[in-house]
């Protein structure tokens, strides 16, 4: 069944170990910039490219729920948490595209660092057959590929007009002018382990959950 398009939607995946303002604030700015109607947060269960999370899947999901409980922009998709095998972006996007239909504008949000290494992803050549790519700036990362063929691929698909993202279902790359929020979950876990304050880095409800469950207290 094909659903009627409902405006531009975007998927934002991560381990969220824990979720923090470095995740949320650039995405909120991006939503305003390109007219996102909905951001679907996608917590990973077994991320293929990075160390396994410290918090359990259920704890990470509960922290994500707390972080966005009063923000209508965000919804949460738990399909990857229900898998016991590595979650590949292409497979998840293929499932979602099947559910939403071929005409629904759909995007996947990544950081500049992920864009520059995207040719290491499983099935990366097919990603733009499923969605647009929305790229958030990251401190210290180039805006160009060193590989001329990858730069040609970027040039071929890049648009500077955010309105185009809502007019077609997939196939474009938009490099957004989002705030550079230099926060990493690794640094936050280190701060929490050392007893340092993270009040300005994590939503209060998430911080209270971390404290109540004694997370990241190595």
TrEMBL record:
E.C. numbers: 2.7.7.18
GO molecular function list: ATP binding; nicotinate-nucleotide adenylyltransferase activity
GO terms under biological process: NAD+ biosynthetic process
Cytidyltransferase-like domain ranges (all copies): 11-191
Keywords, comma-separated and alphabetical: ATP-binding, NAD, Nucleotide-binding, Nucleotidyltransferase, Pyridine nucleotide biosynthesis, Transferase
Chemical reaction(s) catalysed: nicotinate beta-D-ribonucleotide + ATP + H(+) = deamido-NAD(+) + diphosphate
Catalytic class of the enzyme: transferase
Record pathway: Cofactor biosynthesis; NAD(+) biosynthesis; deamido-NAD(+) from nicotinate D-ribonucleotide: step 1/1
One Pfam family linked to the record: CTP_transf_like
Transmembrane spans: none
SUPFAM superfamilies per record: Nucleotidylyl transferase
Domain of life according to the entry: Bacteria
Cited function: Catalyzes the reversible adenylation of nicotinate mononucleotide (NaMN) to nicotinic acid adenine dinucleotide (NaAD).
Family: Belongs to the NadD family.
Name used for this protein in its record: Probable nicotinate-nucleotide adenylyltransferase
Lineage: Bacteria, Pseudomonadati, Pseudomonadota, Gammaproteobacteria, Enterobacterales
The encoding gene: nadD
